[in-house]
Every structure is written in structure tokens, then in C-alpha cells.
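job 3f2a | input accepted
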Amino acid sequence: MSPNYIRSFSEGCLRPPTVIGQFHTLFFGSIRMFFLGVLGFAVYGNEALHFSCDPDKREVNLFCYNQFRPITPQVFWALQLVIVLVPGAFFHLYAACKSIKQEDILQKSSYTGFYIFSVFLRIVLEVVAFWLQIQLFGFKVNAVYMCDVGALEKKFNVTRCLVPEHFEKTIFLIAMYTFTVITMILCVAEIFEISCRRLGFLKTQ
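job 3f2a | predicted structure (205 res):
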């Protein structure tokens, strides 16, 4: 791929054809990633080390932590961010290969339809991620987790485990739900902006 294609692709990803799309890029790329990368590591970075059960043995702690966290929140949210970026990345790669200028995307119906489809696909992926987050993490992190250790062939079947910094994790969890809702709203608003531009209610850029 030539440098011009790479330049067009990067400009398209960083400067979408709509105002709301540009705000979405700023919000998505800056605030959400910063929140996850910096604060997420601070909240969840040492969770496995401080997760303790009764009896406090490494074997039991590791087994119960894997049961408590089938996937760590940082990994889940990082995958969510990457997957949600894919539809837009494919569109801008297509635009770069076809030498489509950003200002022309909202002028031709086929380009506009393709772009709206990529935005709609982002919404679908965010909704799926929202549902998966509910299934995996719920809305609240409890201070005590009851672990089924029957598979370890212990005399007891259920043991109590203490979850470190559960209140901070609950706040962070709600924040990530909020970010997902905000990005979905921005995607819907972007489709509305495109519709208004196509109908002539708003001036195209």
C-alpha cells in the first residue's frame, strides 16, 4: 500500500466526515482509552495477587480467581474497543483504496450508505458488548465471592473469598457501562446528522 493510501486511511480514521463522528473519535480515542489504560490498570492491576480465600492457599486462591474472573475486565474492554473500531477501519480502508475524499462521502448515496452501515454495525457491536458485560460482570462487585471448590476434591464444596477494592471496581464498572451508552448515543446521533445533511437540513462540510 502506497504512502498516499496510508495517509488517506489515517486521516479518514482521525477525521470522519461528520461533526458527531469527529467528536466520537475524540471521545472514543482519548477519554475512553485513557480511562481504561491508566485507571483500569490502577484498579485491576493487582487484583489476582490480593484475591484471597479461606483457606488462604495458592491453589485455592488461583482456582477461585479463575472461577471469579473467566476473563479479566481489562482484556474484555480492550477487545471491545478493538472490535468496535473494525467497521470504521474497514470503511476508511475502502475509501483510501478508492481515493474517496472525506467531503465526498456524504455526497454520493453509495458511499453514504456504506458509511451508515459501518456506523450501524458499531452500534450492534456495542450492544453485544454491553450484554456480554452484564453476563460476565453484572452491575456490582460484591465484597465476598462464594467459590465452588468441589472440583479440587476438598472436604468442603463452597468457600468464601474476599474481593479486594470491590467498591472501586463497582464504580469503574458503572463508568464503563456509561461510556458504552455514550458511544452508542453518539453513533445514533451521527446517523441522524447524516440523514439531516442528505435531506438538506444541515449544510455539508
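job 3f2a | The helical segments are 3-14, 19-44, 47-50, 58-68, 73-97, 109-137, 166-199.
job 3f2a | closed
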